[in-house]
Design a protein that fits this description.
Blueprint lengths: L1 H19 L4 H9 L6 H43 L9 H7 L13 E9 L13 E3 L4 E3 L8 E3 L5 E5 L8 E9 L8 E6 L16 E7 L4 E7 L7 E5 L10 E8 L2 E6 L2 E6 L11 E6 L7 E10 L3 H7 L2 E4 L16 H13 L5 E6 L6 H21 L8 E5 L12 H7 L1 E6 L1
Parallel strand pairs: 17-18
Antiparallel strand pairs: 1-15, 2-5, 3-4, 4-15, 5-14, 6-11, 6-15, 7-8, 7-14, 8-9, 9-10, 11-12, 12-13, 16-19, 17-19
Helix pairs in contact: 1-3, 2-3
């Protein structure tokens, strides 16, 4: 009997020690429990096992609950990264915790100006149709996606080019942005081409269209670029990077800054490519197209925007007394300032620090989509969020900043086209 008690006590200690060492006690318990009918001695041991199992079970249950919460949190973060345009309401505090901090995007040094030269989100095109402002030698259609809201241009014909029919007067200093969702076959370069068209050619499937141009290639492994001109003796001006390539089946927000001969590309919080002489001198781009030379790559594209770049912030804010900005980024129906806004806010903060007596008022503006009251509330919250970032991230004294929101009440363009609506979605900084 003493031997039995000793063995029983020893078993209890070993089992408890194993549980806290995170050994798989459940399997041992199940194995022992399966033999419960063998002997009366086993019945006595099983009573002890039951007690251990009850205590260990609580331990595992507690750990499982934490794991489930972590999994749900990770899933929410993934959903937010994918569904950049989601319109579901969300708790602002939770959103703030999930949004990358502005400091993490310090390499986002581009600053969009107050002129939108082109905007296309395919919202005016019917789902299932080919977009009205584009042409192709292949095929494609407007679709909706389960990973993001809005309409998306599915370029779904192999080895095809997709030309925008509008002529865009690109300046020497401009920014191109677009969202792309690559499919699982995004294995060979998908291309954006900016080029200088001399002879009008609505559908241009030349390998090197126009007089001069710039190819920007992207795939799941790298970025590369190639500046060219039609002189047969000229060389290609090439650059390549493997930093933060596009991710398949996710929304990738690509930002391209062209400044004279210099090309910069930004993605996922980093400047992924920076080439000071990637474009031929004298290039004057006026057309834009996408193309896919791979037989399987069929990505989705939306939210294509072209703006002027690098405004004279000091002159507009201090001298003129007003700065209109399209460089403050928010998700649809959200008030959390996105980290892509770093360059613009840093520029404004620098101007305020250089002029310590200046006070400003920040006002958010929306387009006319949605309810008036909701737009007014959203614009006020956005104005307040921008104010808070200037205070928290850049150290501007709170007494120097006021904020407000005017919703859709002060449009600067009719709310009749995607491009005009994009003009109305803005943040204004006014000297007071």
């Amino acid at each position: 009997m003493k031997a039995f008690k000793f063995l029983f006590t020893l078993f209890i200690l070993v089992a408890a020690s194993a549980a806290f060492a995170q050994i798989n006690v459940k399997d041992k318990i199940k194995e022992k429990s399966a033999n419960r009918a063998e002997t009366k001695v086993d019945e006595g041991i099983d009573k002890g096992i039951d007690k251990i199992e009850e205590g260990v079970g609580k331990l595992f249950k507690k750990k499982k609950t934490v794991s489930k919460e972590n999994t749900e949190e990770e899933q929410t973060e993934t959903d937010q990264a994918v569904e950049e345009n989601s319109e579901e309401p969300e708790n602002n505090d939770q959103t703030a915790q999930k949004t990358p901090s502005l400091q993490s995007f310090t390499k986002y040094d581009f600053v969009p100006d107050d002129q939108i030269l082109y905007f296309e989100d395919f919202s005016q095109d019917a789902v299932g149709d080919f977009p009205a402002l584009w042409t192709t030698n292949g095929g494609g259609e407007v679709k909706t996606l389960n990973v993001a809201s809005g309409n998306w241009f599915h370029m779904n014909k192999e080895e095809s080019v997709y030309c925008n029919t509008k002529k865009i007067d690109f300046p020497q200093n401009f920014i191109v942005e677009f969202d792309i969702v690559p499919d699982e076959n995004f294995q060979s370069a998908f291309e954006l081409c900016l080029y200088e068209e001399v002879e009008p050619k609505e559908m241009n499937d030349d390998l090197y269209p126009g007089k001069r141009g710039l190819h920007i290639f992207m795939d799941e492994e790298s970025w590369s670029s190639k500046g060219y001109e039609d002189d047969p003796d000229s060389d290609w001006l090439e650059a390549r990077s493997t930093t933060n390539p596009c991710e398949v089946n996710k929304v990738n927000h690509v930002i391209i800054w062209v400044q004279n001969r210099r090309l910069r590309i930004y993605h996922q919080g980093a400047k992924v490519l920076d080439s000071p002489t990637n474009i031929y001198s004298g290039s004057k781009f006026n057309k834009i197209r996408f193309s896919s030379w791979n037989t399987q790559t069929k990505p989705y594209v939306s939210n294509l925007k072209v703006t002027t770049a690098s405004p004279d912030t000091r002159s507009k804010l201090i001298t003129e007394g007003k700065l209109v900005s399209y460089g403050i980024y928010f998700d649809v129906n959200k008030d959390v300032v996105k980290a892509e806004s770093y360059g613009t806010l840093s520029d404004i903060a620098k101007t305020l620090k250089e002029n310590p007596t200046v006070r400003i008022k920040i006002a958010g503006h929306t387009d006319a989509d949605g309810a008036d009251a909701a737009n007014l509330d959203l614009s006020k919250r956005r104005g307040e969020s921008v104010k808070n970032e200037l205070i928290k991230t850049f150290g501007i004294d709170a007494s120097r900043i006021e904020s407000d929101g005017l919703g859709e009440t002060k449009p600067i363009a009719p709310n009749d086209t995607p491009a005009n609506k994009a003009l109305n979605r803005r943040v204004e900084f006014t000297k007071i």
